[in-house]
Amino acid sequence: MKSLLLAAALSAVAVSATAQEVKRPEFPFTTEKAYDAAKVAPYKGKHAAAYAYIDANKAAHIENVQRWVRQRSISAENDGVSEMAQMLAADLKALGFKEAELVPTKRHPGVWGYYDAGAKTTIAVYMMYDVQPIEPVGWNVDAFAGTILEDHALGRVLMARGATNQKGPQRIFLNALEAIIKAEGKLPVNIMLLAEGEEELGSPHYPDLIAKYADRLKQANGGVLFPMMGQTLAGGVQMSLGVKGNIYFELEAQGGAQGGPRTAEIHSSLKAIVDAPGLRLAQAIASLTSPDGNVITVPGFYDSIRQPNQEEQELINGVLPAWEANEAAMQKSLGVDKWIGGMTGREAITQYLFNTTLNMDGIWGGYSGPGTKTILPHKFTAKFDSRLVPNQTPDESERLIRAHLDAKGFTDIKLTRLSGYPPAQSSVKEPLVQAVIGTYRKYGITPSVMPRLAGSAPYYVFTDILKMPIVSAGIGYGAGAHAPNEFIVIDPKPGTKVAGITEAEKFYVDVVHAVAKR
Amino acid sequence: MKSLLLAAALSAVAVSATAQEVKRPEFPFTTEKAYDAAKVAPYKGKHAAAYAYIDANKAAHIENVQRWVRQRSISAENDGVSEMAQMLAADLKALGFKEAELVPTKRHPGVWGYYDAGAKTTIAVYMMYDVQPIEPVGWNVDAFAGTILEDHALGRVLMARGATNQKGPQRIFLNALEAIIKAEGKLPVNIMLLAEGEEELGSPHYPDLIAKYADRLKQANGGVLFPMMGQTLAGGVQMSLGVKGNIYFELEAQGGAQGGPRTAEIHSSLKAIVDAPGLRLAQAIASLTSPDGNVITVPGFYDSIRQPNQEEQELINGVLPAWEANEAAMQKSLGVDKWIGGMTGREAITQYLFNTTLNMDGIWGGYSGPGTKTILPHKFTAKFDSRLVPNQTPDESERLIRAHLDAKGFTDIKLTRLSGYPPAQSSVKEPLVQAVIGTYRKYGITPSVMPRLAGSAPYYVFTDILKMPIVSAGIGYGAGAHAPNEFIVIDPKPGTKVAGITEAEKFYVDVVHAVAKR
User: Fold this and answer.
1) Least CB-packed of A72, B38, B68, B159 within 10 Å?
2) Model ipTM value
3) Which domains does chain B have, with CATH numbers?
4) What is the pTM of this model?
């Protein structure tokens, strides 16, 4: 009997030394109740003068969007950023914002704007005016030409970096404000707008901007609005009540006291007696996940993830039919044959929204040209991001990864954090959220209300620091964020189920009024 | 008792599943006898007229070398290659080679030359006229300007791509032939010269060139000579009687039926439900070696390596003092603090020359610019080379790596061989080798005679296909092959222990005569 126990013990020890034992977190549901947005009454307001202004000024409004996407603003490459900030501030001034100013940070400036309508309700608006770098291959048009394509499969589209993420919907929102002001004399709400130019860098200084205007922003009793193109190809809307957090870091291997070339590549024949930083980095990276790359083997990395609460489970149950209807189209548009392990439906959406990630954004080192070059390079670097879910934090995640690397003997691998912020979320019960849902309902859309996006934004500054709800809102369609050939639909083809930009502007006219009446 | 056996069995199974068990091959010696090149009689010939010609034409001879390194010939980038081939053929014609012609291959042309001296002895000369691509950073001069630096630490040097690998020593050899022809009317040997323009690509078509001239080359009863800068900084010479082979291949991971994005990068938030080709490639690479990157864990990869034979052991025992004297300087010039695991002396040189390697020459995929970009890239690629020792073959090595990847489940990782050839070696007892050693002895140098280089060249076409010995020969000093700031010494500073190019040319005058008398 003792021997059998020993056998089991030995076996357990051996197995626990492998990565196979770590499992992806599962999120078992405790309720089948589903949130139903169809029970929210449609918004009943009609704002004919503003709608007419939008119809009459369509060409100028499209040009506004083109002007924005033509202005480069690649934050990672400091390309056109301050010019874009100035363009945004000038546009706010032109709209009648009493305050419109650039706010210096340690890197790219923020933009603060205040529109004083003398109204009871004040809303805050989050904007980001920076964009991702341009992919060297894959673009069918000049990414900064503001090209209108007449014959896109979806109709007339604007194809440009920033078209959908996020200059397009933001300038469309300002077009809507212009329409209200011109048609009605003033807005029905006061607006505090705080834009950043570093969202694509992980928003390192947005907390500073928030801190500077915190006393003002706390007066925003209507909550925070984030304009975006909300429709799927099927015409539906997936509302998201929150975002994941993010930590972005680099891992670097270079020759040093532990071995390997310190300062320059050497002839590859020396591999027989010289340590290789590249193979070392590959080992360190491999130690972070299971062999399929899908389970994070960093001890404790999953521990702080909380299970979905009652509201979140009801929201997921509510959006599941829409997710399932859209799943194949989503895979097709991504060029992905299947989700991990062939999962679908509730398992897929729950993993998507409630699980953390570890992703390699890029890796480089040594020779990458054509043909052969036989070198032992001295330095290799890889970029990673991890999307954080409640209750993960960037500090804890970084600490766990560093501790894991050290425990595995990878003390020679350098870890440098480039950015990080925690997740954020608002409740569906917030009046702001209910007003937005009511507006969708007016447009015949019953939104799928998701507890959060799988993507990241620094909403924690609103939800955690200012203690106010934030919600994204908008109709219309865009695609290709962070990818070549990003676009938004300007005029959908007949039969297409998404709104064009004129309708998207009318939607924002309604949202602003709905929030004023909340 | 049965349970204890079960325990042991379970334990053994578990341990054998890990990489820790695979060990680096060891090469225990069975003899302490040492080869002593000092027992070879110095060459006694004097060729005063040729020496005087070399002294009188120093400036023109330096210009010949500059002209060669200024002519770009980057085989991997098809940059200047055919122009360099034409320059070589024209130079042979000018020297009085009866035959001098470009020989087409499927890619870059070879160059064949025949000098008919009506002599009893015919030697073959191997040349390569191509060079490595230029490193984007690290060069202190234009790599193709043929810059003479007056104030280098070693004296007057020529700094350029190809200065030492191999245009410099090759053109110096031709300068020496010119001196003999001008001073003595003709060469004392017939010469068959066969150059390739694809050495840096792994010599894919050199076998075709050899096959085309095999009947002629078999008449080269003197063997094959390969000119190179043979001295170390201490003034000594390490002769190498052979080379390792090489297999160069790429591993590539891309989304497909197994999961992951097929055609373009996607937003990194999708990592929660989409497989990642990059993490998958890291796992495949990590599976090839031990955690320190230094033991190849591909089953059977070491099996065909034969132990050093009696002659090889004696040669190693003979060169060990020179290796040990040079070891610290070698590490310093490479920017390497120590060899793998801190090994030194016989262990280090034996691993260097008798062990195979697996080296990652480069890796790339995704975003490598400044700052952060959050993408899940669809494709990652890494380049590898493995140096092959007797009795490894490229085919067997590739088969084992592919089989290992498949066995580990990495059937989704694509392996593409870019080049490959087996190792080669000549015996120290060959008359050609003895003639070269005798010439070094005349110059006061007792060479360290190594059984092989750790680097690779396609000498198997001579040793295995034509069944003739090949030896590299030359004095003078160069450094920086396959690296920035490659150079050769033109005129050494007083106190420097290496020869300048004038002396290097006189050495070749002697070698050619010594071989004629062998």
Assistant:
1) B38
2) 0.80
3) 38-243+425-516 (3.40.630.10), 245-305+355-421 (3.30.70.360)
4) 0.80
